[in-house]
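User: Hey, quick favor. My workstation is busy. Could you predict this chain's structure for me?
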Amino acid sequence: MSEQLRLKIKKQFTPVHLFSHIVLLGVGLVLLYPLVFMVMAGFYSKTEFLKTVLDVFPIPKSPTLANYKSLIYGSMDAKVTLYLLNSTIRTVYNTFWALTTSFLAGYVFARLNFKWKEAIFLIMLATQMIPTTLAIIPTYLEFARFPFAGGNDVFTGGTGILNTWWVYLIGGPSINIMGTFLVKQSLEKVPIELDEAARMDGAGTFRLIFQILFPLQLPIMAFIAITTALGTWNDFITPFFYTSSDKLLTLPGAIVKLSSVGNSAGAVVNYPLIITLGLGITLPALLIFFFFQKYIVQGLASTGIKG
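Assistant: No problem, here it is.
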């Protein structure tokens, strides 16, 4: 072993570094514990789970794979395949529109000049300060009074688009305010001379936008796609408040529905199945974050925003 390598190893294994690694290991174990608990609880049957006083690491006396089979193949209690399909369609659809609206709106505010541009942009940013829960009732009334849908005339009567796929198709897509802000900040750092040079070479507006400027925003687009996909995948408010049909449920909505079964007379909540479905929701989100976390850092770094 060379002297240089020996000094390098000695420098890395100082008491401070050792203590730091021990602290990080302890914090990591604490953060991973809920995931470990969910995996182990999934091996319980409904009956044994209710009769067992759970330890820190629950180990069933009669392990069963029924809950994991339900997660993969579905069951009478949970049509997981349908819920998974609904969640996937919503996630892909909302992510596509978030990317489209964010980039185009960001381009408009960064590159075009029009009256009241700054005022409009500030109003858009101000809407981010409104808590999501405050918008539930107005959104419900908007969907319920949607004109010429669900028996409505123009403003009254009927059910509008409640309990239909239109809740997801119309209510989901919107201008992604944070995405618009990030794209605007990033595009403002791109010299306007690039646009002028492209136009002198004969590039039209669409070619300028999609072939020249868009590739420069790929880290931002990746960040918007990841955050939108995670937010949509974990969303339970939309299916819970605006739909009631089992055919429209997503995985988070299904968990809420199964959790409320106990309100029925004589019904017993199937907690192991609920926990296993929660694991099914958590794992894709963890995998997305694990493999694409560098794009989150790159996306924020390219806008000059410090966390």
